[in-house]
Write a structure and sequence with these properties.
- Helix content is 75%, strand content 0%.
- The chain is mainly α.
- The chain has one domain.
- Helix 1 runs antiparallel to helix 4.
- The radius of gyration is 16 Å and the shape is globular.
- The model has no long low-confidence stretch (mean pLDDT 83).
Length: 88
């Protein structure tokens, strides 16, 4: 289970670094402590001047990123089960 949590944290870390880069914020502002916060808090701290529309777009993109990550996790778990346990 901790591997899945590490993968999610890594995914969030990369997501927030990408957002910071997109908005011209130094990516070094993104660290593990920041990523561990609630997403709206991260937006407020990392990008304090965003409009409501921009905040909404960032939150939507985060949701999409996490959905893709969860789908990839489910696919890799299934593939592992099929390979490791052919009768499954």
């Amino acid at each position: 289970m901790s591997g899945a949590l590490d993968h999610r944290t890594d995914g969030r870390f990369e997501f927030w670094r990408s957002v910071a880069d997109t908005f011209g914020v130094d990516v070094s502002a993104v660290d593990e402590k920041l990523v561990a916060l609630e997403p709206l808090t991260v937006v407020d701290l990392l990008l304090p001047g965003l409009s409501d529309e921009e905040r909404s777009e960032v939150m939507w993109a985060l949701g999409e990123s996490e959905r893709r990550s969860n789908a990839a996790d489910a696919t890799s778990t299934c593939a592992c089960a099929c390979v490791c346990h052919p009768a499954a």
